[in-house]
Write a structure and sequence with these properties.
This protein has five helices and seven strands. The chain has about 170 residues and is of the alpha+beta class. It has a single domain, classed as Gcn5-related N-acetyltransferase (GNAT) (Aminopeptidase, 3-Layer(aba) Sandwich), CATH 3.40.630. It has a seven-stranded mixed beta sheet with strand order 1-2-3-4-5-7-6, with helices on both faces. α1 packs across α3.
Length: about 170
């Protein structure tokens, strides 16, 4: 796949954005998150749409759009919400539809959302694709783990450009 454009999300993107987010979660986390928790999280579309509406009002979201207008990925970043002030930015989310993996969409979204700023991101501990992507972009694990009860999975914090890495 080639040919995509980046733009900032608008309020009217809440529903199609939530649908793309749901689809990318299903594609990305199949086999990485136990089936029960994944199905429960994906089951409530209304909650996803409401979250998109709320989050669009709080922080910019970059969207990747195919030539035919289909949303194929997004990224969002802002102040660190886990440890405010610790790492500069926190990458809240970056997801790309699997059909667009390898097309440069994730890199373009990361560059738009955080540039080369110091940043932290939480990633599933056992997600080799994500770990490889972030390693290529200068992120390293800082040894911090967090159990996500909703997903029944461990996450690790990766950081870039911080004296906190240890």
């Amino acid at each position: 796949m080639t040919g995509f454009a980046l733009r900032l999300a608008r309020p009217e993107d809440a529903e199609p954005g939530a649908d793309m987010h749901l689809a990318s979660w299903a594609e990305s986390y199949q086999g990485l998150i136990p089936p029960g928790p994944l199905e429960r999280v994906l089951a409530d579309r209304d909650r996803w749409v409401a979250a998109w509406r709320e989050q669009l009002a709080l922080a910019p979201r970059w969207l990747a759009e195919s030539p035919d207008g289909e949303l194929v990925g997004f990224a969002s970043a802002g102040p660190d919400i886990v440890e405010p002030g610790s790492f500069g930015l926190q990458l809240y989310a970056i997801y790309v539809r699997s059909a667009w993996h390898g097309a440069g969409v994730g890199q373009a979204l990361l560059d738009a959302a955080i540039g080369d700023a110091p940043c932290s991101v939480w990633v599933l501990e056992h997600n080799p694709r994500a770990h490889a992507f972030y390693a290529r972009n200068g992120f390293t694990a800082d040894g911090t783990r967090m159990y996500d009860e909703r997903l029944e999975a461990w996450e690790v914090r990766l950081v870039r450009g911080s004296d906190e890495v240890g």
